[in-house]
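Dear H.,

Thanks for agreeing to be a second pair of eyes. The structure we're designing against is below in token form, covering all 383 positions.
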């Protein structure tokens, strides 16, 4: 009779075809966090896939993974090493061997539908101060703006949610929101290994979309975009990230950036938009459409972009040591950028924190592409 641990390892190995691994080390070699913590994804694949062992130590290393997907992109055998990490987290979650901060985030999703420990009644606070009245999806609309937990509750990310809503209104888009009926997309819950809770969220969200006849969705978070696109079993048909929709609205002449901003802007590719979903051009198109903006590029850009360390549940796990976001903001300052443009609420928060830690607040701002675009349409003072 096989032990429980061997059985679990066998199941993971089989589901992910880990025996096909050739131990080339491309995954570990490309992993952005392996240089600072003992996370060796090649070794994990070997132990699970070849020896049927569950390498749960050191546990901290497993939680350092940002699920950025770089290892998956680089693997010559088209394996998914990141899914092995997530599966090992699932074992820890099942056994209750998780940090208090992770347990609290998961409990909050279960109770309130968001990982931030905030009540459902506050989910619409972000919309205060909008210049127009928002519609609820039950009134019927062509598009659903799925706001997401972080833009709904984080005070800085709320500004982006407002900027995007203003832009969609200016463009004359028929859109609505779910307001207090919106629940977590589940992307981070999946990444944290709580697959049962993720499935509940997925099925609940799909049922809501079907009940309300929602046909098109725009998200302001690449993590929700990724969940709907890749984790919802193809049951959500038309979903765009806001960079894609804004880019199209500019091309259609429905958004006309006119005011010169006079800024040097460097764009930071979010992992869940770029590496994981191949959306590289549209955010750049939005930035380049703004008059008086010079678009700069990081040396590590597009599929080589450096992770900000905000994904994969890392917003709820503190890993000591220098943050990659701190390295990123120093690189931006060296390039002479005035603004780091982002298209993800986690990148916004981690990079803004890093700007403060690095003492660069006087020189460098972090702005979402929606905020930059609105500044060019309405004027910088109103952005
Ligand atoms: S990159 Fe792929 S084949 Fe190479 S060691 Fe990692 S999992 Fe194995
Ligand atoms: S997903 Fe990213 S952080 Fe996690 S193991 Fe792969 S390369 Fe490393």
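And this is the sequence the design step returned. I haven't edited it by hand at all.
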């Amino acid at each position: 009779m096989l032990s429980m641990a061997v059985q679990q390892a066998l199941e993971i190995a089989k589901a992910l075809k880990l025996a096909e691994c050739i131990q080339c080390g491309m995954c570990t070699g490309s992993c952005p966090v392996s240089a600072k913590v003992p996370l060796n994804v090649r070794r994990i694949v070997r132990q699970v896939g070849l020896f049927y062992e569950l390498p749960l130590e050191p546990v901290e290393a497993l939680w350092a993974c940002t699920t950025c997907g770089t290892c998956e992109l680089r693997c010559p055998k088209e394996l998914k090493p990141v899914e092995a990490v997530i599966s090992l987290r699932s074992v820890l979650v099942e056994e209750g061997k998780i940090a208090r901060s992770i347990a609290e985030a998961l409990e909050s999703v279960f109770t309130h539908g968001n990982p931030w420990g905030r009540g459902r009644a506050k989910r619409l606070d972000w919309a205060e101060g909008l210049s127009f009245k928002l519609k609820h999806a039950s009134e019927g609309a062509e598009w659903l703006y799925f706001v997401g937990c972080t833009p709904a509750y984080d005070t800085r990310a709320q500004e982006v949610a407002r900027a995007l809503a203003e832009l969609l209104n200016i463009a004359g888009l028929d859109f609505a929101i779910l307001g207090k009926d919106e629940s977590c997309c589940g992307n981070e819950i999946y990444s944290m290994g709580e697959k049962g809770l993720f499935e509940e969220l997925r099925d609940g969200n799909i049922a809501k979309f079907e009940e309300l006849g929602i046909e098109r969705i725009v998200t302001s978070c690449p993590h929700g975009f990724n969940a709907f696109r890749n984790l919802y079993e193809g049951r959500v048909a038309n979903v765009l990230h806001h960079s894609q929709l804004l880019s199209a609205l500019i091309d259609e002449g429905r958004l006309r950036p006119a005011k010169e901003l006079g800024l040097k802007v460097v764009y930071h590719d979010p992992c869940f938009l770029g590496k994981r979903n191949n959306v590289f051009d549209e955010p750049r198109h939005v930035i380049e459409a703004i008059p008086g903006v010079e678009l700069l590029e990081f040396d590590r850009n597009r599929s080589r972009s450096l992770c900000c360390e905000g994904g994969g549940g890392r917003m709820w796990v503190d890993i000591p040591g220098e943050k990659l976001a701190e390295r990123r903001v120093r690189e931006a300052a060296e390039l002479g950028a005035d603004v780091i443009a982002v298209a993800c609420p986690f990148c916004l928060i981690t990079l803004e924190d890093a700007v403060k830690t690095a003492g660069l607040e006087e020189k460098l701002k972090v702005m979402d592409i929606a905020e930059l675009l609105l500044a060019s349409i309405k004027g910088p003072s109103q952005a």
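Two observations from my side: DSSP finds 17 helices and eight strands in the chain. The chain has a mean pLDDT of 96.

Warmly,
E.
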